[in-house]
Write a structure and sequence with these properties.
Layout: E1 2-9, H1 17-35, E2 39-46, H2 49-53, H3 58-69, H4 74-93, E3 99-102, E4 105-108, H5 116-128, E5 133-140, H6 148-156, E6 162-167, H7 171-178, E7 187-189, H8 197-201, E8 210-214, H9 220-223, H10 230-244, E9 249-253, H11 258-273, E10 279-281, H12 286-294, E11 298-301, H13 304-312, E12 317-320, H14 324-332, E13 339-340, H15 347-360, H16 364-386, E14 399-400, E15 406-407, E16 410-416, E17 419-424, E18 433-435, E19 446-448
Parallel strand pairs: 1-2, 1-3, 3-5, 4-5, 5-6, 6-7, 8-9, 8-11, 9-10, 11-12, 12-13
Antiparallel strand pairs: 14-17, 15-18, 16-17, 18-19
Helix pairs in contact: 1-16, 3-4, 4-5, 5-6, 10-11, 10-15
Length: 453
């Protein structure tokens, strides 16, 4: 059996965090469908395609020019013109898919970027063709009753074609402001799909001793209302690099965006003038960005997905906060103290937090639950939108209801409805493990003993 899913996202963005979101979302859906015995055919659509590649024909341009001359508001006219282009685009792309998944990323935003025309056209075509659509792990970046663009987004999340929505960050604003406390569809908080990038790309932590400094464009803090300009940010990066280089091997990297690359090159050149020669790693693909980060012992980065990739790889990360999405991610993984607001961005403080993050690592219990959140969500989508019940075909664990005992050949233990579930490990070794206790609101404790061939 096979299902065809259209995945919509920022696949052509050179900030490779966004293509990684899309590729990991596809991997997760394929993985969950396979557990229920389904294959997946996938199509992709570029969320900002018309803005990048399409231009209105001369008659349309002349018509909207005349409307502007007659005094119609430019913001609404621009939205309508963009929507017409996206209707043409999605009319070509959307055919007979079983489901449309908008991959995620910062979509409910309206100040610096706005995807309203694309999302509205997408849902209009999906509705006409009776294809269910879902928004997956989207970023929610504020709300403003006086913003035309924000009100467009508010209508979009209530579109009849949209069957479920999940966010990676601000569930409160999504429910209280966009839905006015009355969401008519499932509305959940889950992890960003890129938390699964280690598995999706089959890349593991290389466990080196090198520290990576992820560079973001110079004016990003200023653009988001913080009193930190390009020169001040550059000096922060320079001082960080010089101080870290006293005790560590370091290098610079970016997520691939052109403005980030240019700023990183300036910093590399200035460090060379100061007597410090460091490498600069600029990825040319999403997978290469994951590979770059996998080679670090720890990273300091301002791009959200540099920190998410590091998290997936178990590479300790310090985030430099220019957008609330970094704070939310820090809170969700139990490491808010490692995501530093601009007023505390002193090199000594950043380095002290980095050293502590290296010592402590991540809370693996939180991480496992966080990663499972998107799998559970996708299972619900498949059941609600495609009628595919969650299958236990690949999850037929022995059920143990005794409190003690020795179990052999174990890799994972879970509590579920007072039953310990054991995942059998298909390897050449058997791992004796003692189940110490289980009861409500407690954790299973497993004591590995000796490996027996």
């Amino acid at each position: 059996m096979k299902k065809n899913i259209l995945f919509v996202g920022l696949y052509d963005d050179h900030n490779f965090g966004d293509p990684i979101i899309g590729e990991c979302t596809e991997w997760i859906y394929r993985h969950q469908l396979a557990k229920s015995g389904f294959d997946m055919d996938s199509d992709t659509a570029v969320l900002d395609y018309a803005d990048r590649y399409m231009r209105s024909d001369i008659i349309t341009r002349a018509f909207f020019f005349a409307l502007r001359k007659l005094g119609f508001k430019n913001e609404k006219l621009q939205f309508t013109k963009q929507k017409l282009n996206y209707l043409k685009y999605y009319n070509r792309i959307i055919k007979k898919q079983d489901l449309i998944v908008v991959n995620g990323g910062g979509l409910l935003k309206f100040k610096v970027q706005f995807f309203g025309a694309s999302l509205k056209a997408l849902l209009d075509i999906a509705g006409r063709r009776s294809i269910p659509a879902v928004f997956n792990s989207i970023g929610v970046e504020g709300f403003d009753n006086n913003s035309f663009k924000c009100q467009v987004l508010k209508r979009i999340v209530r579109h009849k074609a949209l069957q479920a929505i999940s966010t990676r960050d601000d569930l409160t604003t999504l429910k209280q402001r966009y839905f006015e406390n009355t969401p008519q569809i499932p509305c959940d908080i889950i992890c960003d799909p890129a938390v699964w990038c280690s598995e999706a790309y089959d890349i593991q932590n290389k466990k080196t001793e090198e520290i990576g400094i992820g560079i973001i464009r110079g004016n990003v803090f200023k653009d988001y209302g913080y009193n930190l300009d390009s020169n001040e940010l550059k000096e922060l990066y320079l001082t960080l690099a010089q101080n870290l280089a006293k005790d560590h091997k370091i290098s610079l990297f970016t997520n691939g965006l052109g403005l980030d690359n240019d700023f990183a090159t300036q910093i590399k050149d200035e460090l060379l003038k100061r007597g410090l020669d460091v490498s600069l790693h600029i990825p040319e693909s999403s997978k290469e960005l994951v590979e770059i980060i996998s080679n670090y012992k720890a990273v300091i980065a301002a791009r959200l997905h540099a920190t998410i990739i590091a998290y997936s790889l178990d590479v300790p990360a310090i985030g430099l906060v220019w957008n609330s999405k970094l704070r939310f991610f820090g809170e969700n993984i139990g490491s808010r103290e490692n995501f530093i607001d601009p007023e505390y961005m002193k090199p000594s403080h950043i380095i002290a937090r980095l050293e502590k993050a290296i010592d402590l690592g991540y809370n693996q219990e939180i991480k496992n639950k966080f990663k499972e959140s998107i799998l559970d969500h996708v299972d619900k989508i498949l059941e609600r939108s495609l009628g595919i019940p969650k299958s236990n075909k690949y999850n037929k664990y022995p059920k143990i209801d005794a409190i003690g005992g020795v179990i052999y050949n174990i890799s994972v233990c879970e509590i579920q409805d007072f039953i310990i579930l054991i995942r059998l490990k298909q390897e050449q070794y058997k791992l004796p493990t003692t189940i110490l206790r289980h009861h409500k609101n407690s954790y299973i404790t497993c004591l590995p003993q000796t490996m027996i061939a």
